[in-house]
Amino acid sequence: MDSSKDNGVDNGAEQSGRRGFLSKSAALGLAGVTLGLVACKEEAAKGGEAAPQKAGASKEIAPGQLDDYYAFTSAGHGGEARVVGLPSGRTLKRIPVFNTDCMVGWGVTNESKAIMGTKADGSLKYTTGDTHHVHGSYKDGTYDGRWLFVNDKIHSRLARIRMDTMECDKIVELPNVMGFHGLFTDKCDPVDTKINYTTRVFCGGEFHIPLPNDGRDLDDPSKWGTLFSCVNAETMELKWQCRIDGNNDLVATSYDGKLAASNQYNTENAADLNGMMSAERDACVFFNIERIEALVKAGKFTTIGGSKVPVVDGRKAANSDPKTAVTCYVPVGKNPHGVNASPDGKYFVCSGKLSPTATVIELKRVQAWFNGELKEPRDAVVAEPEIGLGPLHTAFDGKGNAYTSLFLDSQCVKWNVDAAIAQFKGDKTAKVIIEKMDVHYQPGHNYSSMGETKEADGKYLNSGNKFSKDRFLPVGPLHPETEQLVDISGAKMRLVADHTAYSEPHDGIIVRRDIVKTRQIYNMDDFPNAVKPENAGIERHGNKVHVRLMSQAPAYSMPIIKVKKGDEVTLTLTNHDKVEDLTHGCALPTYNINFIVNPQETKSVTFKADHAGAFWLYCTHFCHALHLEMRSRFLVEA
Ligand code: CUK
Ligand code: CUA
Ligand code: CA
């Protein structure tokens, strides 16, 4: 089949771009890859009539009914995180993290700017972000509903979101890291098993850079390096970093807290595409957390540039003796993508991406290598089934089955882990592949309900597809992406719904709703700058003016606020309403100010009153029958 023939004009550019990539792959001997694309085009052609199978009544969420699950998802280069109800697919909330958000005032208020980080002049250090992975904090091997963590690949930052308010409360920038991609929380302390909850977050650096990145070695990438970082989940400070050979892509952690791992597509340490695809196999690098922390404690580390973070050497040359090694490089299929932990705690699965295989690594054997009881790291591989073209990410149902996204085949493949292990041992009758289901189209991440916990329940799988093509009404050059919800509770996978995602679906987690406990009303005393009747009003020190304002529907505490041109004004607003959902807004025309205050919450903004006039400070959030009348005169004298 001539794949160029059926390239529609409407997506010709996208298709030819992909052909360019594919012809390179084909030149490298990956002929099978081309077949994958053709299959996808056939799917695209018949996609119009491939209506979703009829959803069973039990899957429908009627008006007024609540969803069974929360999905917490990343938003790609939108820089935020999202909360979606499943199975309905209703968007419940967008949580601004690395982006600014004019609805809540994220990036506008002093409090959010302090979390995001500012330059000397008070403006935001960064206004862009690229979130790929959201993971929750754990206790006893399942989510504890306390925190979510999310990465920013662009500026290598880790953010924490409180799950009770679903707001970002801390952001840390990782030193000497570029392209912070995969992250995962730990589930237990490697030594003290009483600490059976998350205290660390592991962060993989994907791109090589000079260390330190201060202008040295610009013309010699062979001297560049990548780091694996560990952040204290409570304080959000860096604990340590580990320098490795090759790179980090995604990250997984063991349930016993002893191991973390990252798949490596660039074991070649190459700086260009061909170089990164030159090795026949790449690796999954395992980190021995206990040993790394012992080295840090013993002072056996270096630091890089001006950073004080301890850096342990995890490169191969320094880790050839298993008894003292902090890293173990297990060979896996070519240019692997995702690495995922099975809910029984036994295995990590690495997808091949350029190899049509998944590599199953037994954690017990990795541990055995570290103990000197296993000869070669490659002996930790217990299965490597052929599952399809372009495998990326793997989810689990808690019943021994794995579901891997096949980017090139545009499919989700369900396969059995035990059968794959039996086949690897030579059992020719083992039935590894259970089912392949078309998804629309080109899936990246998939994730299952509670699938990354010991409580994996095998109910739903979400397939985050990179292209929707014909699945939705077109909205201009960029089609919305598709999140497809699949019912995996029965013998056969069943497509339940297509949900849109505005750029761009990456990873997410599906959390049972009883785990999430939110608060509806803040505690006013949690805000040191809360405005109360005794301190409300205007206070002036030279040309610094502090306006302390309160809101209670349908009025602000001051009908007139008068300042002078040239004043530096700090406006602090506390919402005194205590009624659930009674939120007020605060916008100031021509001064670029807009934010909301939830019940009992305090926020502030600081700005220069640099132009005179009368400006109506008004409430932007519909709060009362007299919401429109909720406004004060903000007067700036010439
Ligand atoms: S990566 Cu997005 S599809 Cu950044 Cu998790 Cu694989
Ligand atoms: Cu207060 Cu609208
Ligand atoms: Ca490679």
Helix content: 10-25%
Mean pLDDT across the residues is 92
Q: Flag low-confidence runs.
A: 1-58
- Strand line-up across the major sheet: 8-9-10-11-15
Main sheet properties: 5 strands, mixed
> What would CATH call the homologous superfamily of the largest domain?
YVTN repeat-like/Quinoprotein amine dehydrogenase
Ligand types: [4Cu:2S] cluster, dinuclear copper ion, calcium ion
Briefly, what CATH class of the largest domain? Mainly Beta
Could you tell me the CATH topology label of the largest domain.
Methylamine Dehydrogenase, Chain H
Number of domains: 2
How many E-type strands?
39
C-alpha geometry: globular
Helix-strand makeup class: mainly beta
Oligomer: single chain
Helical segment count: 7
How far apart the termini lie comes to: 74 Å
CATH architecture of the largest domain: 7 Propeller
> Over the alpha carbons, how many angstroms does the gyration radius reach?
26 Å
Portion of residues in beta strands equals: 35-45%
